[in-house]
C-alpha cells in the first residue's frame, strides 16, 4: 500500500504536531504546477492545497486552464514542471495509484455509444481492476445513484445529453475513489439532470468524498463549493470561501443604471460614491464601504434622475471576476 504511508508515519507521531495535522487533513497538494502547449503557458505555476472532504470549485472562463489542471491531477499528461501530491505521495510515475484513488469525469463525454450503460460500466470497472460479484454490485449501485437503472440495457446512443453525462459520472465512481475530479459536468445538460448531478455530488461529499469541480457558471460554484479558486490565464487569481472572495470587492452593494439618458454630469456626480464601471449599455457604481444608500439616492434626485432608473444588487462572483480581470466570465 503506497497511499497513506506518510500518513501512517504522521499517525505514529514522528512528525511535529502542526505538520502532522496538515498532512492528515491534506488530500491534494499542487506545487508550482506548470503546463505548456508550445509557446502557450496554459497553467502557470499553480500552487494549491485541497483538504480532505472539501468541495472545491475551479471557476474560470473558456481557456482559463481548468481542464489542463484536471488532466495533470488525473495523470493524463505530465506537467512541464511542478508536482502533484495525493495524500502526501508525489504522483509522478505512479499511474496505478492515480487510477485507484482518483475518479475523473472528463469535460467531453467518454462512453461507447453502441454499447449499453451496463456494458460501458463493465469496461470501466475492469479498467479499475474490479470484477466478479463486486463489479456487478458496483454497477448496480452506480446506475441507481445516477437514476439510470431502468435504462441499463439501452445503448448509450439512445440517451439524452443529460443521461450520457450522468452515466459518465457513474463510470468515474465505480471504484469508490477518494478524490473526484469533475470537469464542467453539467455543460449542455437539462435542468433535471443537472439537479440530479448536484444532489449526488453533494451526497457523496457529505459522505466524505473530496470533490474538485470546474465550471464557468458562478451560480454552480456559489451553490456547491465550500471553497473556490478563480482561475484565468493559467493562474489562480483569488482563493477562498464565497464570503471571503466577495469581501475582496471594494463594495457591499452595486447600483446599476442605463448609460443612455443619464447626463454625463450626473454620471460623474454618482461616481463620487464608489468605483464606476461601464458594461455594455449600463453603468455600475460599486458603492464604497460606508456610503449610505440614502445619500446616493439624494444625489440622484438632486440630479433629476428618477429612482426607478436604478437597480440595486449584491455583488456576485461575476463582479469579483470583472473586478480582477476587467472582463466577464462569459467573454
Ligand atoms: N492540446 C492542446 N494543444 C494546444 N493548446 C491547448 C491544448 N489544450 C488546451 N490548450 C490551450 O490551453 C489553454 C487552457 O486550456 P484548457 O482546456 O485547460 O482551458 P479550460 O479552462 O478548460 O477551458 P474551457 O472552459 O473552454 O474548457 C487554452 O488557451 C487552450 O487553447
Ligand atoms: Mg475545459
Give the SSE layout.
Elements: H1 5-11, H2 17-25, E1 26-37, E2 40-51, E3 55-59, H3 66-73, E4 81-86, E5 89-90, H4 95-101, E6 102-105, H5 117-127, H6 132-145, H7 161-173, E7 179-183, H8 191-206, E8 210-215, H9 218-224, E9 227-232, E10 235-240, H10 242-246, E11 253-258, H11 264-270, E12 274-279, E13 282-287, H12 293-302, E14 310-313, H13 317-325
Parallel strand pairs: 3-8, 3-9, 6-7, 7-8
Antiparallel strand pairs: 1-2, 1-4, 4-5, 9-10, 11-13, 11-14, 12-13
Helix pairs in contact: 1-2, 5-6, 5-7, 6-7, 7-8
The site of adenosine-5'-triphosphate has 13 residues, from β2 and α3.
Which tags fit this structure?
331 residues; alpha/beta; Rossmann fold; Alpha-Beta Plaits; 2 domains; six-stranded mixed beta sheet; four-stranded antiparallel beta sheet; 37% helix; disordered N terminus; binds adenosine-5'-triphosphate; binds magnesium ion
The CATH topology of the largest domain is given as Rossmann fold
Radius of gyration equals 24 Å
Count of helical regions: 13
What's the mean pLDDT score? 89
- Total number of strands: 14
Biggest sheet statistics? 6 strands, mixed
Can you characterise this structure?
The protein folds into 2 domains: 52-81 and 95-246, 3-Layer(aba) Sandwich (Rossmann fold), CATH 3.40.50; 253-314, Alpha-Beta Plaits. A hairpin with a 2-residue loop joins strand 1 (26-37) and strand 2 (40-51). It has 331 residues and is of the alpha/beta class. It has helices at residues 5-11, 17-25, 66-73, 95-101, 117-127, 132-145, 161-173, 191-206, 218-224, 242-246, 264-270, 293-302, 317-325, and strands spanning 26-37, 40-51, 55-59, 81-86, 89-90, 102-105, 179-183, 210-215, 227-232, 235-240, 253-258, 274-279, 282-287, 310-313. The protein is built from 13 helices and 14 strands. Strands 6-7-8-3-9-10 form a 6-stranded mixed sheet, with helices on both faces. The radius of gyration is 24 Å and the shape is elongated. The longest helix has 16 residues, at 191-206. Magnesium ion (MG) binds at residues 66-67, 107, 183-184.
Amino acid at each position: 500500500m503506497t497511499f497513506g504511508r506518510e500518513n501512517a508515519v504522521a499517525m505514529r507521531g514522528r512528525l511535529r504536531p502542526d505538520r502532522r495535522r496538515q498532512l492528515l487533513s491534506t488530500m491534494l497538494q499542487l506545487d508550482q504546477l506548470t503546463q505548456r502547449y508550445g509557446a502557450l503557458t496554459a497553467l502557470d505555476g499553480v500552487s494549491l492545497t485541497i483538504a480532505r472532504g472539501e468541495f472545491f470549485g475551479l471557476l474560470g472562463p473558456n481557456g482559463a486552464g481548468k481542464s489542463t489542471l484536471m488532466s495533470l491531477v488525473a495523470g493524463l499528461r505530465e506537467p512541464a514542471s511542478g508536482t502533484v501530491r495525493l495524500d502526501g505521495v508525489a504522483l509522478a510515475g505512479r499511474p496505478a495509484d492515480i487510477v485507484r484513488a482518483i475518479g475523473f469525469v472528463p469535460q467531453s463525454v467518454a462512453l461507447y455509444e453502441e454499447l449499453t450503460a451496463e456494458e460501458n460500466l463493465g469496461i470501466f470497472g475492469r479498467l479499475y481492476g474490479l470484477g466478479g460479484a463486486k463489479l456487478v454490485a458496483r454497477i448496480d449501485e452506480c446506475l441507481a445513484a445516477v437514476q439510470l437503472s431502468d435504462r441499463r440495457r439501452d445503448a448509450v446512443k439512445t440517451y439524452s445529453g443529460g443521461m450520457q453525462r450522468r452515466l459518465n459520472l457513474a463510470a468515474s465512481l465505480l471504484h469508490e475513489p477518494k478524490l473526484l475530479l469533475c470537469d464542467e459536468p453539467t455543460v449542455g445538460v437539462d435542468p433535471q439532470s443537472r439537479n440530479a448531478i448536484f444532489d449526488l455530488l453533494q451526497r457523496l461529499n457529505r459522505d466524505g468524498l473530496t470533490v474538485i469541480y470546474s465550471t464557468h457558471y458562478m451560480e454552480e460554484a456559489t451553490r456547491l463549493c465550500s471553497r473556490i479558486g478563480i482561475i484565468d490565464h493559467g493562474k489562480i487569481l483569488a482563493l477562498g470561501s464565497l464570503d471571503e472572495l466577495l469581501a475582496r470587492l471594494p463594495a457591499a452593494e452595486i447600483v446599476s443604471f442605463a448609460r443612455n439618458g443619464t447626463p454625463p454630469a450626473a454620471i460623474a456626480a454618482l461616481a463620487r460614491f464608489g468605483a464606476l464601471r461601464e458594461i455594455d449599455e449600463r453603468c455600475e457604481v460599486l458603492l464604497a464601504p460606508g456610503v449610505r444608500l440614502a445619500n446616493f439616492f439624494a444625489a440622484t434626485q438632486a440630479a433629476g434622475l428618477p429612482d426607478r432608473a436604478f437597480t440595486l444588487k449584491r455583488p456576485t462572483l461575476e463582479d469579483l471576476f470583472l473586478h480582477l480581470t476587467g472582463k466577464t466570465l462569459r467573454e
